[in-house]
């Protein structure tokens, strides 16, 4: 189903919890398109998540494929040193994200806040905060509940589209899973070679894809994507409220919802995922752990709007994890509204124009945070496989030594 792109009134104002009201007639966005403030109201829509999941035509869901994808997700055989798995940085105990500002990949041990590099080490921190995989199946969905799973926006910098393409990127990334032993153009072939040597994986791939010699890079990506597509949370208290249950959220949370709308948060945090899936320049504080400054999309300091769903699991916040709590995120936007700059390389005149028109005050924050908590949903797959076909430790070296 072709994706429908709606550019009318798209506001480049907020990344994480940005809130804005416009007094400008028009401005030019990063994508070069002119925005008209009169159309902003068209974007003031949020809704419950769909209860059906779309898959690409060439990768329909099946129980066998999902089961295979889950094993691969937990198996460190996919990493260069065979010491880190997808789940290492996206663990179900932390909502398929992790409570670290910047993830630690190969040559390390421990899980979450206990994860540390081994010594000696020359591998850097992952330069961006690990986003939750929960509901990534709905990435790209717009205010009309339309989305195309083959062209869904992925990552903070939108560098690939679709869960299938996303699944391979961490395996290729030096600081995420690849490590020192293989070049980027070698690692996927190495992983496929390893998988082919394991009889159980040969059988699982052939069953999942109903073909001989089924262990291929393409099928590896499809299996992982199929599993990730099942990690959805579509019944938060907010979803129940939007489907007609007036008692699903409390009065204070309803007040917070009204504030969320009136101060302008929905200019960018709209649709059922509370994201416009567009890039924004907001000048978030830098993370001192990074030796090189992260300049974002095309060196513009722009990053894609994240979802606001399941924020309970995704702290710390912003693209580099520089803000530890939702309160600090909202205080950051209040600082912007008062003319303060929090990133030395991004002066105010480079911010998205509407971010300088913020209408957010301290008195609003508690109620808005109360509302955001209605978007949490703990009903997702938390079952961890007891073993993986490679025989390696499930999840990689996640035990503290």
Please characterize this protein's 3D structure.
By secondary structure, the protein is mainly alpha-helical. The chain folds into two domains: about 170 residues, Cytochrome c-like domain (Cytochrome Bc1 Complex, Chain D, domain 2, Orthogonal Bundle); about 170 residues, Cytochrome c-like domain (Cytochrome Bc1 Complex, Chain D, domain 2, Orthogonal Bundle), CATH 1.10.760.10. Helices cover about 25% and strands about 5% of the residues. The chain is built from eleven helices and eight strands. The strands form four sheets. The chain has a two-stranded antiparallel sheet with strand order 1-2. α1 runs antiparallel to α6 and α3 packs across α7. The longest helix has 13 residues. The radius of gyration is 21 Å and the shape is globular. About 50% of the residues are buried.
Task: Give a quick summary of the entry.
The chain is mainly α and about 400 residues long. It is built from 11 helices and 8 strands. α9 crosses α11 (about 360-370).
Order of strands, main sheet, comes to 1-2
**Which range best describes the helical content: under 10%, 10-25%, 25-40%, 40-55%, 55-70% or over 70%?**
25-40%
The SSE order reads EEHHEEEEHHHHHHHEEHH
Whole-number average pLDDT? 89
CATH topology of the largest domain: Cytochrome Bc1 Complex, Chain D, domain 2
């Amino acid at each position: 189903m072709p994706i429908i792109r709606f550019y009318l009134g798209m506001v480049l104002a907020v990344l994480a919890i940005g809130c804005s009201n416009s007094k400008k007639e028009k401005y030019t966005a990063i994508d070069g398109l002119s925005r008209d403030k009169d159309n902003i109201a068209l974007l003031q829509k949020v809704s419950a998540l769909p209860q059906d999941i779309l898959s690409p035509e060439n990768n329909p869901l099946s129980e066998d494929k999902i089961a295979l994808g889950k094993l691969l997700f937990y198996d460190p055989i996919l990493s260069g040193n065979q010491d880190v798995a997808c789940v290492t940085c996206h663990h179900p105990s932390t909502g398929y994200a992790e409570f670290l500002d910047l993830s630690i990949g190969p040559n390390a041990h421990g899980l979450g806040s206990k994860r540390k590099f081994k010594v000696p080490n020359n591998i850097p921190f992952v330069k961006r905060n690990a986003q939750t995989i929960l509901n990534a199946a709905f990435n790209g969905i717009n205010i009309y509940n339309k989305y195309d799973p083959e062209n869904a926006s992925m990552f903070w910098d939108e560098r690939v589209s679709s869960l299938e393409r996303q699944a391979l990127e961490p395996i290729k990334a030096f600081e995420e899973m690849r490590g020192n032993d293989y070049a980027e153009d070698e690692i996927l072939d190495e992983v496929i070679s390893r998988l082919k040597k394991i009889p159980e994986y040969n059988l699982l791939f052939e069953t999942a894809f109903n073909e001989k010699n089924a262990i291929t890079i393409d099928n590896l990506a499809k299996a992982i994507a199929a599993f990730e597509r099942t990690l959805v949370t579509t019944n938060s208290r907010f979803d129940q409220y939007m489907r007609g249950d007036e008692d699903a959220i409390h009065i204070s949370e309803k007040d917070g919802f009204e504030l969320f709308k009136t101060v302008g948060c929905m200019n960018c945090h709209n649709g059922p995922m509370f994201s416009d899936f567009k890039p924004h320049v907001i000048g978030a504080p830098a993370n001192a752990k990074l030796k090189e400054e992260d300049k974002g999309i095309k060196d513009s300091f722009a990053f894609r709007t994240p979802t606001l769903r399941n924020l309970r699991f995704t702290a710390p916040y912003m693209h580099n994890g520089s803000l530890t709590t939702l309160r600090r995120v909202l205080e950051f936007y209040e600082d912007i509204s008062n003319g303060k700059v929090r990133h030395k390389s991004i002066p105010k005149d480079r911010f998205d124009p509407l971010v300088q028109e913020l209408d957010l005050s301290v008195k609003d924050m508690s109620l808005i945070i109360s509302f955001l908590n209605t978007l949490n949903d703990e009903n997702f797959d938390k079952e961890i496989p007891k073993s993986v076909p490679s025989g390696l430790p499930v999840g990689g070296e996640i035990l503290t030594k």
